[in-house]
């Protein structure tokens, strides 16, 4: 049996169907294609932080590559919000009819590329939904953590109460559709991050052009002594450079300096990859918007290093 705590990992951010940049990054990291899957000659292992589908040109090929690696012990994969959305888009709503995720224009457009690429492979798509359901929402080892969007100790504990491995049962998924319940909050924040309502009627457009009244916040910060643009994702012109008044954000959890390093994706960062702090790093640099696919080469350190970011 492998001692996972002694293994060395390469953690890779959101792929969104961009298999060519993924293969290029794997080669850069020293992985080789042998016996039908990518593997490292020194036994290193990849952790994928989710969002394999939607937006990109080679979604089927991305899934096949990732699953081949996980099936053969060369990788582990975490569920992203796009996989969760696909599950809910697929599962029937037994009580109200329709599906758990509404088939409205916005949701259909989000899944457009995936639907196109699987339109002649419906049976195969159903098997991918089954695979998505078996993906955990988080991975924790003795010396590091990985999650798709947000590590909140309280919510991770709640998820563990239902599944020690972080894999959700269908029963839990159905129960997590009820807005405001503990199950809903645990899944939403873990997969989609922390959102805070903006005061004074301020709104902004997100990357897809949707008008938002809530902003995603940088959950590893407490919001103390910050300007709005230091604490909020996205460029909200009315707030840039302004100090956050005390008490504006009441649910600011922060991520303590003495916690294990945590790796995640999800946030569509731009520019040159960087560490968020000595023990926090986001690996999503908008590959689906012309950005970079980014990895962190992790060797067990408690203080993360910029030079370990590979892109």
In short:
By secondary structure, the protein is α/β, with parallel strands linked by helices.
Number of helices: 10
Total domain count: 1
Q: Between the first and last Cα atoms, what is the distance in angstroms?
A: 32 Å
Order of helices and strands: EHEEEHEHHHHEEHHHEEEEHEEEEEE
- Fraction in beta strands: 15-25%
CATH-level-2 architecture: 4-Layer Sandwich
The major pleated sheet works out as: 5 strands, mixed
Q: Uncertain spans, ≥5 residues at pLDDT below 50?
A: none
Structural class of the helix and strand makeup? alpha/beta
Using DSSP, what is the number of strands?
17
Rg is: 19 Å
Which overall shape is indicated by the principal axes computed on the Cα atoms?
A: globular
Give the helix proportion (percent range): 25-40%
Walk across the major sheet and give the strand order. 5-4-1-16-17
Q: The CATH topology, please? A: Purple Acid Phosphatase, chain A, domain 2
The CATH top-level class label? Alpha Beta
What is the arithmetic mean of pLDDT?
A: 92
- CATH superfamily grouping: Metallo-dependent phosphatases
What features would you describe in this structure?
- By secondary structure, the protein is α/β, with parallel strands linked by helices.
- The two termini are 32 Å apart.
- It has one domain: Purple Acid Phosphatase, chain A, domain 2, CATH 3.60.21.
List keywords for this structure.
311 residues, alpha/beta, Purple Acid Phosphatase, chain A, domain 2, five-stranded mixed sheet, four-stranded mixed sheet, globular
């Amino acid at each position: 049996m492998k001692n996972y705590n002694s293994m060395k990992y390469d953690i890779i951010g959101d792929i969104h169907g961009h298999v060519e940049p993924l293969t290029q990054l794997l080669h850069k990291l020293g992985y080789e294609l042998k016996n039908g899957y990518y593997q490292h000659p020194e036994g290193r292992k990849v952790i994928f932080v989710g969002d394999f589908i939607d937006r990109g040109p080679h979604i089927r090929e991305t899934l096949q590559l990732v699953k081949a690696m996980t099936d053969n012990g060369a990788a582990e994969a975490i569920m992203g919000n796009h996989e969760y959305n696909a599950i809910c888009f697929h599962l029937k709503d037994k009580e109200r009819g329709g599906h758990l995720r509404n088939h409205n224009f916005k949701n259909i457009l989000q899944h457009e590329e995936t639907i196109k690429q699987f339109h002649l492979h419906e049976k195969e798509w159903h098997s991918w939904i089954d695979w998505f359901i078996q993906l955990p929402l988080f991975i924790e080892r003795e010396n590091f953590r990985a999650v798709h969007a947000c590590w909140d100790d309280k919510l991770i504990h709640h998820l563990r109460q239902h599944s020690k491995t972080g894999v959700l049962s269908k029963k839990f998924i159905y129960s997590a559709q009820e807005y405001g319940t503990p199950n809903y909050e645990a899944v939403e924040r873990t997969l989609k991050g922390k959102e805070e309502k903006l005061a004074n009627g301020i709104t902004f457009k997100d990357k897809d052009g949707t008008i938002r009244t809530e902003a995603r916040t940088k959950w590893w910060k407490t919001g103390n002594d910050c300007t709005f643009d230091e604490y909020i994702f996205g460029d909200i012109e009315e707030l840039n450079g302004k100090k956050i008044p005390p008490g504006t954000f009441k649910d600011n959890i922060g991520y303590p300096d003495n916690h294990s390093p945590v790796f995640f994706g999800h946030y569509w960062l731009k520019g040159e990859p960087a560490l968020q702090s000595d023990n926090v790093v986001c690996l999503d640099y908008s590959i689906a918007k012309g950005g970079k696919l980014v990895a962190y080469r992790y060797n067990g350190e408690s203080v993360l290093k910029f030079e370990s970011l590979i892109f």
